[in-house]
Specification:
71% of the residues lie in helices and 0% in strands. The protein is mostly helical and 279 residues long. It starts with a helix and ends in a 5-residue tail after the last helix.
């Protein structure tokens, strides 16, 4: 009888060890017969339990705890159908932390995802979108350096060109909106430099900046202000024939612009000076 009891005790110990090994991170377990999980991880898909617990932790914004659940799936369940999703959830936890170090970690995970899964993978569009968002979320104000903004533009362009058909239409629309915002940020940063040159009367430097914006970013949301400062710089330097159509474009394309009144006066003055009819 003693041997039978020993064998039963050994069997229970072995069973407990198996459960603890597979679910060490799932939650607090009060004992082998406890009711905290009530699941046999070997028989009843522990990866699903881990994933659900990770989702719950994310809902509570417990990013570190959630990441531990998803990392367990990634590292210990190579055959799990949830493994690819778990990798993206890991990235979500870094995004939730919203700091420079976390974004660097997110980017590392995303590059690894792209290395492991082909561009045709169903989650590949989301991974590329998230790469763009890593840079987008770190964009600085126009007065600061724009390294992250340029990277965001590059990655959004890649997402749109590579996944315009595979990605959800709503995600494509959102990417286009954010791409426009990022491009505007770059153009605004360049304009600020040009306006500085304008104010210190370095008109050649200012004109070079303003022309660069019009050439590089035809969709810039504030082209009216670029038209005005470029046209005014040209006028100051005697390039009236080049300045006139810019003032006219400002009025035509941006009739509600704050610069319309000044542009109208400039047009009248230029036409008078050039001997043109005011038509």
């Amino acid at each position: 009888m003693a041997n039978i009891n020993n064998r039963n005790a050994l069997s229970r110990t072995t069973k407990c060890s198996s459960i603890f090994a597979s679910l060490a991170i799932v939650g607090t377990i009060t004992g082998c017969g406890g009711n905290e999980l009530e699941i046999n991880p070997i028989e009843n898909a522990a990866d699903t339990v881990l994933f659900e617990r990770g989702q719950e932790a994310m809902s509570d914004e417990n990013w570190t705890r959630a990441r531990e659940y998803f990392e367990t799936i990634r590292d210990n369940y190579p055959q799990s159908t949830l493994r690819d999703q778990a990798r993206l959830r890991i990235i979500d936890t870094y995004e939730g932390e919203d700091n420079e170090i976390a974004y660097q970690s997110a980017l590392t995970e995303l590059r690894e995802f792209q290395r492991l899964y082909p561009p045709t993978h169903e989650l590949a569009p989301i991974a590329q979108y998230k790469i763009a968002m890593v840079f987008y979320n770190q964009m600085k104000i126009p007065e600061r350096e724009q390294t992250q903004t340029r990277a965001a533009v590059r990655e959004f362009e890649t997402f749109i060109s590579d996944y315009s058909e595979a990605a959800e239409p709503g995600l494509i629309t959102e990417a286009r909106t954010k791409l426009r915002e990022a491009r505007d940020r770059l153009s605004e940063a360049s304009f600020i430099v040009g306006r500085y040159y304008y104010r210190i009367k370095n008109y050649l430097g200012a004109m070079d900046r303003f022309r660069g914006i019009l050439d590089d970013d035809p969709g810039y949301s504030r082209r009216d202000i670029v038209y005005y400062y470029l046209a005014d710089s040209l006028t100051i330097n005697g390039f009236n024939t080049e300045a006139l159509p810019l003032f006219e474009r400002l009025i035509s394309e941006y009739p509600e612009s704050e610069y319309v009144t000044d542009a109208t006066q400039q047009i009248a003055s230029l036409k008078t000076g050039m001997g043109l009819d005011d038509r």
